[in-house]
Specification:
Helix 3 crosses helix 4. The chain has two domains: about 140 residues, Rossmann fold (3-Layer(aba) Sandwich); about 70 residues. The protein contains nine helices and eight strands. Strand 6, helix 8 and strand 7 form a beta-alpha-beta unit. It is α/β, with parallel strands linked by helices. This is HAD family phosphatase.
Length: about 220
Amino acid sequence: MEKRALLIDFDGTLVDSEVVHYDSWQHVLSPFDIHYTEQAFCLEFAGVPTLQAATVIKKRHNLDISAQWLCEQKNQQFVLTSEQVKPKLLAGVKAFLNAAKQQFTLVLVTGSTRNEAIPVLTHYELFDLFSATICKDDVINPKPDPEPYLKALEFLSIKPLEAFALEDSATGLQSATAAGVQTIVIPHEYSKSQDHSKASFIANDFSEAWEYIQKNTYI
């Protein structure tokens, strides 16, 4: 069956946003005298949904506030932080997306909110390459639930086997594979130790991912 679409994650896949997420969390947690090193925090929470991370942090530190409040504060802080320092594009992203757009329909499928993802894509002049964006705001159950990917497939009116997903973390991989979408994982420093055994292919970079896509478009 021919592949017609690429469903692409945002954080950690297109942009190196883990440091921005870390800085945002530290801003929110520092009034509670809670401090993590960047490496420790990112190794534990890379790819983890914000509300899930907030729930863990609240319980671990016995905070007398709701996980939802922590989540909302962190999301707001991320928007403010990324306005000042945009997350960097990962190597090869622009070339990959521009080449892929010539052959496939591109859909962003992210656990980030629109306020977090869209300004960054717009800043790098990538937003218009996507035919649709499925953000956390658009679903009831975000990743690792399959709903974001199922919603993307529904929007495109295609079957799961007519698309590839590109992800960087176990959370995203679980979401995509649960929706029946073959998934290419491009791990980074903080996600490479996660379980990616259900991936169709694990690539070192976008060049390897593109080569795999080209060889398997008609399978």
